[in-house]
């Protein structure tokens, strides 16, 4: 019980009296814009509770291409359902201009069209809250990544971008209160 009381006191000092994380404004890194075009390998995970109470969870790895000038995101890869390990080979095209996602399941030869629940972040907005910085790598091969909390409508996204002047996306985690809307 004594340790619990100390933890609570430390947590209160850490969070400050308003409940928001304390930070020094002078230590906040500059906001930046991601490159207009880039490619990477990405992994995704998602979990959804359907209206009937069924839980769906997936994990996927994709070759990812991003082109803001064309307003397109392209992904090709494989997705696994967590509970039954069903594998799906997918091609996914996201059109930022019309807000649609086109998913082609290469195994079933079916195409699905859906609405984008959130749009990719092209720049860290002025309304974003700086969360923290982390260092990736070792020795003289290090990259500093800055994590930002971005709230747009009901969506909450934690985006980590490199501080090396290139603003390369390193990680991203998005949370939607009503993914089906």
From TrEMBL:
GO cellular component, one term: lysosome
Record has Signal as a keyword: yes
The keyword Magnesium is annotated on this UniProt entry: no
Keywords: Signal
GO biological process: cell-matrix adhesion
InterPro entries: Ependymin (IPR001299)
Sample GO molecular function, one term: calcium ion binding
Signal peptide feature range: 1-19
Protein name: Uncharacterized protein
Origin species: Rotaria sordida
């Amino acid at each position: 019980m004594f340790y619990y009381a100390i933890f609570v006191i430390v947590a209160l000092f850490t969070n400050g009296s308003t409940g928001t994380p304390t930070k020094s404004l002078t230590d906040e890194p500059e906001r930046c814009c991601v490159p207009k075009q880039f490619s990477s390998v990405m992994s995704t995970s998602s979990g959804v509770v359907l209206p009937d109470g069924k839980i769906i969870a997936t994990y996927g790895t994709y070759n990812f291409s991003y082109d803001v000038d064309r307003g397109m995101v392209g992904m090709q890869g494989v997705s696994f359902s967590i509970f039954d390990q069903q594998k799906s080979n997918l091609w996914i095209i996201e059109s930022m201009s019309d807000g649609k996602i086109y998913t082609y399941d290469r195994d079933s030869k079916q195409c699905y069209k859906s609405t984008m629940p959130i749009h990719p972040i092209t720049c860290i907005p002025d309304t974003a809250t700086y969360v923290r910085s982390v260092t990736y790598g070792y020795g003289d091969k290090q990259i500093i990544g800055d994590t930002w909390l971005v709230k747009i409508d009901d969506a909450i996204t934690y985006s980590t971008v490199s501080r090396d002047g290139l603003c390369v996306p390193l990680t991203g985690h998005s949370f939607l209160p009503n993914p089906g809307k």
